[in-house]
Specification:
heterodimer; A: mainly alpha; 48 helices; elongated; B: 161 residues; alpha+beta; 7 strands
Chain lengths: 977, 161
């Protein structure tokens, strides 16, 4: 044993050897490390402390640099930590602070070791323990070591004291009850003459105030912070104090009045950019009501903006955008810099500039700015390009397209954005496409036009980022096909061979849209041939004056009829002939193909758009394109292809006969086909509308329906799936829209499926939702005299985007007041505003998390109003602990704090008189700030110091009595007035 | 507060990691990988701040080494740049014109120096002279202990005891 130990310590690889070894390994570094780990595992178990320490040092190295796990060695860390040699101890503590966490079980073993080191006479050992504790302290450690830390808070050695102050933050967070004991000492450290100690204390308060959900608690300390702000010369400390004020100022307007001058003074005087920037930030976030301060800050921001240092420029832009939310004029004043920054080399700066530009957007200039930005995006690199597109989309889409007046323009802008080669915003554009279709009736013709342009461009199919947009386009052109100028062309686009590049789900949307187009064409043809007289069909409740649309009700009897028709159609009539037709067709196809294309693309369809021939060609085209899909593996695609093909089969034969006959030579009653087509047409022309998120909740639950019993399990399973999307309405998604249509179709359509449970559910869902689709007559009052679609802007005559933008913002802002819209803004369908459901839940949990710490702090800082009045209660309060305290805080806090700050004067009077009876020095303390008010700073300081010493003296007498920060708190109101 | 400090070489090698907020080993590796990807690809004349997962990362390159510190949204970036510079100056004083190799072979020293500058994610010592004095004092404590330990006779005595 001893011999091997000597050998080990003599021949052990040192840390240097290990590092050199790793550096020599060009390849196979991991192999070398594995070998080294084996050695370490062996060495660390030795009894020789030197060998063990070196092994641990190597392990720490491998852990922090190479990320090798060292949690297995936790016990050995404890061993090395407790070594009596400083060198080993140091290695042990380093290892502990690198590797220990809440879950390390051996942490339980180190309490005594830490206590021993915290009370060591060697200040460096104390330092090690404190440093380690600041990283690894758990609730148990914090509780057990609070007395030691408390003692160290007033250590005479700066080295120890500043560390102890820094550690107290972690202690408070882990063990809020420590606040009761040591808060007062922490406050005393704010007044320490040593800047290091003061800096550490300010740092702790800065952290506490910024993490606390209720910074109001720190208002009582405002006088201390004010003194530091005025007297301190140390930039590090000043920055922290400014941060604290940034939290306090919004809570207390009177405080703002006091600090605005010193802050401006610092801003003017300081040579340190970091301090200057902090002053600027404080002003732009919290002191925006003080005109002179804002002016000065804007002046300084300007300095930052024109500086060559990109850091300063970036921060300047950031400050400007914070200010922009309150005052727009500084942004406009610096417009030149902002717009030039759009072409900066630094993406961060560009992004900030983009935010500022979007901040300048209003109803009047949105069109121009967007146009310039979209063109600018064409020239930018992909990432920034998408940032631009994204911010245009979110700005224009905000609050139901609030700033968009001309939807024709916006829809064509969406189309243009889709064509940007870098565009990756498919999802956003997709949802806006569908959303506008659903909400803005007047935009539909233009929407269909834009969708058509996107669909017929075969180049777009190859870009996977655009697939979602294409899906939306397909859906739009199917749903609103009545606005299409040329349905045949649309059909060809939907069925073009390159659609095979699309993912199956989107192909399914294409096919379903093709179905809608087909039904529309057939129906229009029949109307045109007067086979169907819109008004004469007795089943229909409402007539159709032209190709217009509206909500038509399909009656139940129809569905039944139709289903039976479909049944027999499938089983008896058509199946035997399939082969014949296909053979026949294939021969006809080749000859006709050319004519189809020519006919549909070149012949103008103005007068007699639907001819016998064109309809036949259409049917053949559909059959040919969808034939291969009927056998595909993709369920969605196959399903929809079968739907269409089945429909064609069902009507084809009779249609041929029908088409051959002359107009009006037959009786409608004898033929099923017109009825079927009529039915399908009506099914598809039922309008889909946006659905409120809470629609389901408003459906009264029918009697005898047990919702909870069967579906409660489903809730858990589908928790993720059922979560509402980020937009507040559910039909923003075309897939969903598609489903709707499909379920409808399945119900009323031809392919009768076994009525499974899911279809029943769907039926029910549909029925219920039917009630909540918006009635469309409301928006029909809008004027119909729509001007023709906007010409797309010419790209070529755009010289320089940024210059343009500059002029633009100028013009638009000059003419901001007058609105120059030629036409009224179309109605955007919004559901009732009561839909904003998801709020407060997250907020609540966050608050409860911090509750215990801020609860403890409340007790200390604001407890003064309660304590003197209920002096008997004090001891019981202390002993009964947290629960009662929290209850007290919860119930009484809000009103109490208000009282504290609002009508401070009366309460101050009463409490001071009460206290003056038994405590003379408290009174003295209260008076001093009055002098402060009068401006005699220096005398006041002396006084304060005097009282401070006095006070500390007193605390020594009663080690941890009730916190007597009390004497300090009544100070604020005076100070503030 | 500062959540962590990273030193990464231009080649993406990690030279020092110090975590002031709790991160598991897995998260640490992920953070390092992500950030070195973001920071090392940024050009030389760009600003020294990166927005990252709701935090800000302030970095500065000295020779071949990137010094990175992660801070909260409302922390002062320029102050952190000054802290980084402060750290570098102290390293420079301690090692005598510091280079990457110094930090590679004295990685623990770099930690001890950092621990005198920052504590709990806050600056604790703004005087270079004081840090130098404190480190020297601790070094001498370590050295005397080492001398005692490494004498051969001591080792043999210890082993045969």
């Amino acid at each position: 044993m001893s011999a091997s130990s000597i050998m080990e310590s003599l021949f052990q690889r040192s840390l240097d050897d290990l590092i050199k070894g790793i550096r020599l390994q060009l390849i196979g570094e991991s192999k070398f490390i594995t070998k080294a780990m084996e050695e370490i595992r062996r060495e660390i178990k030795t009894t020789d402390s030197q060998t063990k320490a070196v092994a641990l040092e190597k392990l720490t190295y491998l852990n922090s640099i190479h990320g090798i796990d060292m949690s297995w060695a936790a016990f050995h860390v404890v061993e090395v930590m407790s070594s009596s040699r400083f060198a080993h101890k140091k290695i042990g503590y380093l290892a502990a602070s690198q590797s220990f966490n809440e879950g390390t079980d051996v942490i339980l073993l180190i309490t005594n070791q830490l206590r021993k080191d915290l009370t060591s006479t060697n200040e460096f050992e104390v330092g090690l323990a404190l440093e380690c504790l600041s990283v690894i302290a758990t609730t148990d450690l914090a509780r057990d070591l609070t007395p030691e830390i408390f003692t160290l808070l007033s250590s005479s050695k700066t080295f120890v004291r500043k560390k102890a102050v820094a550690v107290i933050l972690r202690i408070f967070v882990k063990y809020p009850d420590a606040v009761k004991v040591s808060f007062k000492r922490l406050v005393e450290n704010l007044e320490n003459s040593d800047p290091h100690v003061m800096s550490a204390a300010v740092g702790v308060f800065c952290e506490l105030a910024s993490k606390d959900p209720d910074p109001r608690l720190y208002l009582p300390l405002a006088p201390e912070f004010y003194r530091i702000l005025v007297d301190c010369k140390n930039n590090w400390i000043l920055i922290k104090v400014l941060k604290i004020f940034a939290k306090l100022l919004p809570l207390e307007p009177r405080l703002a009045k006091r600090v605005v001058d010193p802050i401006c003074e610092h801003m003017r005087r300081t040579g340190a950019k970091s301090l200057m920037f902090e002053c600027i930030r404080t002003v732009v976030t919290t002191l925006t009501d003080y005109e002179s301060a804002v002016k000065l800050a804007v002046e300084k921001i300007r300095e930052l903006l024109v500086d060559d240092d990109p850091n300063l420029k970036y921060l300047g832009l950031q400050a400007l955008s914070i200010l922009g939310a309150k005052h727009l004029w500084p942004v406009l004043e610096n417009k030149d810099v902002v717009i030039n920054s759009l072409s900066d080399a630094d993406p961060n700066i560009k992004l900030e500039a983009l935010h500022l530009v979007m901040g300048m957007v209003s109803e009047t200039n949105v069109a121009e700015i967007s146009r310039v930005l979209v063109n600018y995006a064409l020239k930018s690199e992909p990432q920034f390009c998408n940032e631009i597109l994204g911010s245009i989309l979110s700005t224009c889409g905000r609050n139901f397209y609030e700033i968009v007046v001309d939807f024709d323009w916006y829809v064509s802008l969406l189309g243009e954005m889709s064509r940007n080669p870098h565009c990756q915003k498919g999802e956003e554009i997709e949802s806006q496409f569908v959303d506008i279709g659903l909400r803005v009736k007047d935009a539909r013709p233009e929407l269909v036009r834009v969708a058509r342009d996107l669909l017929i461009d075969p180049a777009l199919l190859g870009n996977p980022f655009l697939h979602r947009i294409l899906a939306a386009s397909a859906w739009v052109s199917g749903e609103y096909v009545e606005f299409s100028k040329n349905p045949f062309e649309l059909m060809e686009a939907l069925l073009q061979p390159r659609t095979s590049l699309l993912p199956p789900l989107i192909r399914a949307v294409y096919i379903h849209s093709a179905f809608k187009v087909l039904v529309f064409c057939l129906h229009s043809y029949l109307v045109q041939r007067e086979v169907i007289h819109p008004s004469s069909v007795d089943d229909l409740a409402t007539g159709m004056p032209d190709l217009g649309f509206g909500i038509k009700c399909v009656e139940v009897s129809d569905i039944a009829k139709c289903q039976s028709a479909a049944d027999c159609g499938h089983d008896d009539e058509f199946n035997p002939r399939v082969s014949d037709i296909s053979v026949e067709d294939s021969t006809m196809e080749t000859t006709r193909d050319i004519t189809v294309h020519e006919a549909s693309s070149s012949v103008s369809l103005q007068k007699e758009p639907f001819t016998h021939e064109s309809i036949l060609n259409l049917l053949n085209l559909v059959k040919m394109a969808l034939g291969p899909h009927s056998g595909t593996d993709e369920v969605e695609v196959q399903d929809r292809a079968q739907n269409v093909l089945g429909f064609i089969k069902m009507i084809e034969q009779e249609l041929h006969g029908l088409l051959g006959e002359e107009k009006g030579n037959f009786e409608i009653g004898e033929h099923k086909v017109p009825k079927i087509i009529e039915l399908m047409y009506n099914a598809f022309s039922k309008e889909l509308g946006p659905v409120s998120v809470s629609a389901q909740e408003r459906v009264p639950i029918p009697d005898g329906l047990m919702l909870k019993e069967d579906l409660s399990d489903l809730d858990n399973m589908c928790a993720d799936v059922l979560k509402p999307p980020s937009s507040s309405f559910t039909t923003g998604n075309p897939q969903f829209g598609e489903r709707e249509g499909d379920s409808f179709f399945n119900l009323h359509g031809k392919e009768p499926e076994p009525s499974t449970e899911s279809t029943l559910l769907l039926a029910q869902h549909r029925k219920q939702h039917g009630l909540y689709y918006l009635p469309s007559d409301k928006n029909e009052t809008v004027s119909n005299d729509y001007p023709p679609a906007n010409e797309p802007p010419l790209l070529s005559n755009l010289v320089d985007g940024t210059q343009d933008l500059m002029k633009l913002t100028e013009q638009s802002l000059a003419s901001k007041k007058k609105s120059n819209h030629a036409k009224p803004r179309p109605v955007v369908v919004k559901l009732d505003e009561g839909d904003e459901l998801p709020v407060s839940a997250t907020k609540l949990t966050k608050e409860s998390k911090d509750d215990s710490l801020s609860g403890a702090l409340r007790d200390i800082l604001l407890g003064d109003k309660v304590n003197p009045m209920s002096s008997q209660r004090q001891p019981s309060d202390k002993s009964s602990g947290k629960r009662e305290k929290e209850a007290l805080v919860d119930s009484g806090y809000a009103s109490r704090s208000k009282q504290n700050l609002g009508d401070a004067q009366p309460s101050h009077g009463s409490s001071s008189s009460r206290r003056s009876k038994h405590r003379s020095h408290g009174k003295e303390k209260q008076r001093s700030p009055r002098r402060n008010n009068e401006g005699k700073e220096d005398t006041q300081k002396d006084k304060k110091k005097g009282s401070h010493h006095h006070r500390r003296h007193k605390t020594r007498q009663r080690a941890d009595g009730p916190p007597n920060v009390i004497s300090q708190t009544p100070v604020i109101p005076d100070f503030l007035l | 507060m500062i959540h962590f400090v990273l030193l990464i070489s231009r080649q993406g090698k990690v030279r020092l990691t110090k975590w002031y907020s709790p991160y598991s080993q897995k998260e640490r590796t992920k953070v390092i990988r992500e950030l070195s990807g973001v920071i090392l690809t940024r050009g030389p004349k760009l600003c020294n701040f990166v927005e990252w997962r709701g935090h800000k990362v302030v970095y500065k390159r000295y020779a071949s080494l990137y010094f990175c510190m992660c801070i909260d949204q409302d922390d002062n970036e320029l102050e952190i740049l000054e802290i980084i510079h402060h750290f570098v100056e102290i390293l420079d004083r301690y090692f005598g014109s510091v280079c990457e190799l110094d930090l590679i072979f004295n990685f623990h020293k770099a930690y001890y120096i950092l621990d005198e500058i920052l504590i709990a994610g806050e600056l604790q010592e703004s005087s270079k002279k004081t840090v130098a004095r404190l480190i020297a004092a601790q070094d001498s404590l370590v050295e005397t202990a080492k001398e005692q330990a490494s004498s051969l006779s001591n080792m043999i005595a210890h082993a045969t005891k």
